[in-house]
Amino acid sequence: MRGAKNDVKRIGRTLLAAGLGTLAGCGGNGADAPAGERLLAGGLTVAAAQKSPWPVWSGLDYPYNEPPLAAAPAVTFGIAQLTQSASQTVFTGTHTLASGSVQNYRIGVFLHNDVFYWQADAAVTIAANGTFTVTLPRSVGSADRAVLILYPSTYNPLSASNCNAATATCSGRVTTTTKLSLPADPAVLKAYTAAYFPAAMTSTNAQIAGLQGMMNTPLITGGPYGDGRLIRSFRDMDSAFLYDQALAVIAFSLAGDQAHADLVINAMAKLQGPSGAWVFSYLTDGEDGNAGVNMRIAGSNAWFGMALNAYQKAFASKKYLAMSTKLHNYLLGELVNITVNGTAQKGLRFAPTNYVAGRAGIYALEHQLDAYASMHQYYALNGGTQYQTAATALRRMSESLWNGSRFLGGYDANTNTLNTSERYLDNYSWSVLALGNTGSANQNFAAALPAMCDYFTTTGKLDYPSRKVTGIVGFYDVIYDGVPSSSPFVWSEGSLGAVMAMRQGAGTMTCAGNTATDILESMNYMVDKLRNMPYATQNANGDFTSSGSVAGTAWLYYANQAKNPYAHY
């Protein structure tokens, strides 16, 4: 989510860098390149080449191994079976070490919950016939995953700078190779693999079950509504972004899963600040993910307002109305009188503090859309003319960023300029999902959608030790200065929003011969064995991991079920 999520690297505790650019991560705004604004005569079909081939599965297809690598490993090393009892946990699998070299390698086990714990008493057998067995003399307890490493016998797994030999623990390091949180750098290993221990999954819907499984997180106690849990944003990390908590609550509510929606909201009630807002990011235990930086970002807070509205509507319940009202009143206070293109507006500022220089003077399109939906929904449920007035102002502010052929991504009150150099995919899709196909003055917002094909790629690829998926079609995130990406990838969250916008406003539109239905069918191939949607296909962008994600999984649910989270009530 550009502006409420992409404003920082979504990995662990990463702090904001100072040089983000004026509107980077604000919902962006597109370049005025002619290719990006073309509207084709005779309809919405964008002429292009042959349809992309459907994904091809190959290689070992183990049920527990899903850590992505930049390239296929030189040595196959994967878990074929995982069995567990009260007294032991057994991993069995295969390897492709040369039979004469087996004695030169060892297998080690790390269990993870808050940090990685080295299991010194693991009993390991590496057989020359290409099989291995690792036995722990206990159940894994509260672990959310195990990482098995295959390493040279001369290597000490606790020797790295991120490890403490005295306590036999290693903090997770996010490597550029994997973009996952791992106890050891893959560069020093022969191979590695992971086993996952998801929370109980009860839903018959694959996406809802996948979200349930990502709640193998610490219990957060002491909240006003009882105990709760945050949902981890990525399967392999301990981040819990506010936006992802909102997406999960909306999905659970739409699916009628009140118990899991309650868990997330209960945890968030404990964390709600005195102002009524939440910070941008937490760790799964509720700790501020950017401690010391006052990051109350408007868009992600508005999304949680949408989540509380979705819960209230789905379950006809005012259980959390007090916290919802407190949040919406906070958002009311963040509306500021500004002038855009010579016209007075009331807009939602990016944040109340300049945690990055000038940030409080930014007005991102996406944040206006998010808050518009949240205010509109809240008013429909609860009344209050101040919320209706705010919704009207936010729609007006959003429409002021329409340049006649597309939406710009934001306004910088620090310099009194509109950003025209960055063009984000979500500006096209979310504007239509939130505002509708046409504007209050009959502006044809849906006519901008064919320009999303500028972000389209047919070369999405997932590369895992256990499987390879190629031929994924979809969209990447942003075009800077009118120059398409030289290394495009498929971004699941954004692509699924684009699919929904195409269905709503451009039913005949295709990109490279692919309809919205074709793209959605292709993307369903990305889902991993734990029923999670990877955040992106293989890429070199540190912000876009291929780990299973809440954002991808929730948006896949919305797209598969044709449920628009921005919908009016």
UniProtKB/TrEMBL annotation:
Q: Enumerate the PROSITE patterns for this protein.
A: PROKAR_LIPOPROTEIN
Q: Which InterPro entries does this one have?
A: 6-hairpin_glycosidase_sf (IPR008928)
Q: Which domain of life is it from?
A: Bacteria
Q: Name one GO biological process term.
A: carbohydrate metabolic process
Listed name of the protein: Uncharacterized protein
